[in-house]
Design goal:
Blueprint lengths: L1 H10 L10 H18 L1 H12 L11 H25 L3 H4 L7 H18 L14 H33 L2 H13 L2 H4 L4 H18 L2 H15 L4
Helix pairs in contact: 2-4, 2-7, 4-7, 6-10, 6-11, 7-8, 7-11, 8-10
Length: 231
């Protein structure tokens, strides 16, 4: 009975705090568009192009520390946009899940990590686990993938809150942020789309139920580092 009640509360429309003005909704849509263009579109366009024209794909052969430095710089650039919008928003940091961490956040974050890894093993790729050759290279790879995962989760957490406010429905918010995060995968690797979409939807659903960003960020970063070693 409790599980049925939780599901009903999740899919039921959110109770509107007050009927938002059209101007507020337009601002929220604009914020989603800005975050999408900064956080997802720059990676999606080359991915779609390379998926349609594999022969034109350029090989990246930079040193691990160079790749890590570029990704960290990119993560700072991406995270600055939604964090600044949160800083200027009337909801404040707590409204977007950035409140005082609790011990339960650690448990939920580890649970999301295990779910992510289990789904990762379903991907149609080789399942060999391979670590980088040296400890320094491992540190660079870990920093690179953790930063990449962090910027994606920060962007998705912001977008799913705005979707929930626009549509007053958690389920629609989860579907919206999942589609925006995975549309390019349909061109690059369609067989991986269901697994990736389910992973993102799970993260977004947990976030909306708890309204805490810390499990989302922790789970995404650990799972991102793990994904670097599965090839």
């Amino acid at each position: 009975m409790e599980a049925d009640s939780s599901y009903a509360n999740f899919v039921a429309p959110l109770k509107p705090q007050s009927q938002p003005q059209n101007r507020s909704q337009h601002r929220w849509i604009a914020e989603i568009a800005v975050v999408f263009c900064v956080a997802m579109l720059p990676e999606a366009v080359p991915a779609v192009f390379h998926g349609l024209y594999p022969a034109a794909q350029a090989s990246s052969s930079g040193a691990p520390w160079q790749s890590a430095a570029q990704t960290i710089a990119r993560a700072l650039e991406v995270c600055a946009v939604p964090l600044y919008l949160i800083y200027r928003s009337p909801e404040g940091w707590a409204g977007f899940g950035y409140r005082r961490p609790r011990l339960s956040d650690l448990g939920v974050g580890l649970l999301l990590t295990m779910v992510s890894i289990a789904l990762m093993l379903l991907l149609p790729t080789a399942r060999s686990f391979r670590l980088p050759a040296t400890g320094f290279a491992m540190g660079c790879v870990a920093a690179q993938y953790a930063a990449a995962s962090l910027m994606r989760e920060v962007a998705r957490a912001f977008m799913v809150v705005r979707f929930a406010e626009i549509f007053a429905n958690r389920a629609i918010a989860v579907v919206g942020v999942t589609l925006l995060s995975t549309f390019d995968v349909l061109f690059v690797n369609p067989r991986a789309f269901p697994v990736l979409a389910l992973t993102i939807a799970t993260y977004a659903g947990f976030f909306l139920l708890r309204r805490s960003a810390w499990p989302l960020l922790l789970g995404g970063m650990i799972a991102g580092v793990f994904s670097a070693c599965i090839r």
